[in-house]
């Protein structure tokens, strides 16, 4: 491979400053593919044409990729013909250079490692380029503020990060089944807490099996239903029970207003007295206790910057993780108040779709639940039964598709003051990717800005009115209790390889 180094001076770019690159690694990839086209599957996910530093190498890789992706034969001759047809043969070094690449690459054993080297050097060059743009912008801001430049710099760096090769790929059933069984056994041994974040509401936790890591949870409702109160009650539970960072992005209410609500809820203090400051003597003790509970571990943050973009939210959350540790829960109030630069309101539906996808990506990146509040269409008001359904979500298509869980907050007394269900709310499960739909009934204490569990003996509602599921007489494996599910899964793992079941012996579910 060292025989090729003499060609670097002729083809390398920017001689005034040596940029990170590896001529040898690039040549090893190209020569390896010319000799062994089947090695394409080992590098196609790791490098792209623009990752190659030298212009001739980019042309050769482009020709090779086109031939292989079209299912055509690849060798020195077919590569020469492809380059010639594209008018790139002379710029790629001609047939002589293709032969040289092939002759000096005896093996493809390390071709994936070479691809990672080329990809990494490409990332280094992109970072250098972005830093140069940032330096130039700071030297000539053209009326932009320092804050504008910081956001621009973060966006550019995040763009570079997004161009990295994606990790992962197909995983065998043995590995997946082992992980699934371990998770089920953990849930059996330690209870639901091992599965995710509690909402603080017993019946809802039971139906959802908690809020799972990487889940996008949409909470929606018409005005005055209490969707912000409900979401903040879940935030309170996370702040009190979790050692991880909890962050709220509030684009509707100021941070101090949210804290006032939380103090009222956690301290059982009438919110009107908290807002006005006309506290009773006993209120001060409750207020102090609630404030200390919120501030116990410096892990709770509220960002009330208006109209945040997904990239800004991601970069701010990354900074929080870097400084304060793992993220446990993110709450966004509310989705339709986010904006993406460049859309300018021209196509709001597409913009909401992009925002929805970004929130799901946020949940996956930080491996935590993301609770995003959403508005409902006004058409709900025109129906006799005003309980919301998934199609009532404003710009609903993408939101419904991206969400793992959709919860609607519905209080019948808002429409019917004399309702039998006054002082309560239905939390309607409109979608649950890994579980049933339905609803649970909670108590609503408006003066304390909180929802509460309805304990047995405190109400006269029927099981049906409480949202209790009827027992299915034909239960399947997926509906078994956690302990039984763990036992069944363990049997499958232990029984693997004992001999195949005879054809036709499988019983219907």
UniProtKB/TrEMBL annotation:
The keyword Ligase does not apply. Signal peptide: none annotated. Its EC number is 5.6.2.3. Residues 190-458 form the SF4 helicase domain. It comes from the Bacteria. The keyword ATP-binding applies. Residues 478-509 are annotated as: Disordered. GO terms for cellular component: cytosol; primosome complex. It is an enzyme of class 5 (isomerase). Keywords: ATP-binding, DNA replication, DNA-binding, Helicase, Hydrolase, Isomerase, Nucleotide-binding, Primosome. It holds the Pfam family DnaB. GO terms for molecular function: 5'-3' DNA helicase activity; ATP binding; DNA binding; hydrolase activity; identical protein binding. InterPro entries: AAA+_ATPase, DNA_heli_DnaB-like_N_sf, DNA_helicase_DnaB, DNA_helicase_DnaB-like_C, DNA_helicase_DnaB-like_N, DNA_helicase_N/primase_C, P-loop_NTPase. SMART domains: AAA. Residues 485-497 have a biased composition (Basic and acidic residues). One of its GO terms (biological process) is DNA replication, synthesis of primer. Residues 498-509 have a biased composition (Basic residues). It catalyses: ATP + H2O = ADP + phosphate + H(+). Belongs to the helicase family. DnaB subfamily. The main replicative DNA helicase, it participates in initiation and elongation during chromosome replication. Travels ahead of the DNA replisome, separating dsDNA into templates for DNA synthesis. A processive ATP-dependent 5'-3' DNA helicase it has DNA-dependent ATPase activity. This is Replicative DNA helicase. It comes from Pseudomonas alloputida.
């Amino acid at each position: 491979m060292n025989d090729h180094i003499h060609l670097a001076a002729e083809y390398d770019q920017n001689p005034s400053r040596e940029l990170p690159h590896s001529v040898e690694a690039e040549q090893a990839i190209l020569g390896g593919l010319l000799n062994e086209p089947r090695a394409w599957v080992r590098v196609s996910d790791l490098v792209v044409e623009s990752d190659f530093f030298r212009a001739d190498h980019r042309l050769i890789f482009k020709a090779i990729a086109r031939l292989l992706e079209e299912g055509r034969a690849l060798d020195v001759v077919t590569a020469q013909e492809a380059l010639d047809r594209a008018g790139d043969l002379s710029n790629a070094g001609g047939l002589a250079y293709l032969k040289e690449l092939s002759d000096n690459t005896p093996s493809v054993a390390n071709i994936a490692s070479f691809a990672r080297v080329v990809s990494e050097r490409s990332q280094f060059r992109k970072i250098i380029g972005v830093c140069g743009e940032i330096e130039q912008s700071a030297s000539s801001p053209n009326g932009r503020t320092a804050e504008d430049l910081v956001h621009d710099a973060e966006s550019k760096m995040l763009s570079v990060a997004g161009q990295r090769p994606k990790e992962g790929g197909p995983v065998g059933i043995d590995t997946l089944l082992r992980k699934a069984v371990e998770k089920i056994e953990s849930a059996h041994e330690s209870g639901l807490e091992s599965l995710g974040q509690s909402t603080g509401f017993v019946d809802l936790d039971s139906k959802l099996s908690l809020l799972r890591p990487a889940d996008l949870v949409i909470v929606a409702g018409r005005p005055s239903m209490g969707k912000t109160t409900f979401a903040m009650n879940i935030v309170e539970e996370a702040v009190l029970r979790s050692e991880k960072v909890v962050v709220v992005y509030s684009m509707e209410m100021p941070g101090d207003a949210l804290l006032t609500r939380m103090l009222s809820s956690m301290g059982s203090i009438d919110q009107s007295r908290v807002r006005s400051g006309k506290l009773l003597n006993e209120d001060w003790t409750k207020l102090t206790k609630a404030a200390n509970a919120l501030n116990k571990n410096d892990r709770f943050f509220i960002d009330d910057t208006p109209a945040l973009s997904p990239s800004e939210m991601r970069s701010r959350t990354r900074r929080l993780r870097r400084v304060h540790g793992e993220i446990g829960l993110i709450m966004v109030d509310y989705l339709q108040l986010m904006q993406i630069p460049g859309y300018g309101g021209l196509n709001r539906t597409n913009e909401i779709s992009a925002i929805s996808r970004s929130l799901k990506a946020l949940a996956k990146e930080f491996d935590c639940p993301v609770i995003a509040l959403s508005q409902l269409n006004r058409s709900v008001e025109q129906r006799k039964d005003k309980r919301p359904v998934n199609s009532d979500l404003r710009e609903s298509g993408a939101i419904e598709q991206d969400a793992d869980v959709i919860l609607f907050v519905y209080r019948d007394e808002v429409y019917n003051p004399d309702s039998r269900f006054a002082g309560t709310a239905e939390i309607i499960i409109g979608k649950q990717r890994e579980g049933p739909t339905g609803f649970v009934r909670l108590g609503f204490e408006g003066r304390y800005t909180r929802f509460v569990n309805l304990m047995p003996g405190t109400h006269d509602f029927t099981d049906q009115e409480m949202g209790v599921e009827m027992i299915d007489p034909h239960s399947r494996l997926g509906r078994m209790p956690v302990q039984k599910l763990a036992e069944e899964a363990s049997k499958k793992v232990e029984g693997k390889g004992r001999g195949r079941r005879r054809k036709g012996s499988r019983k219907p579910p």
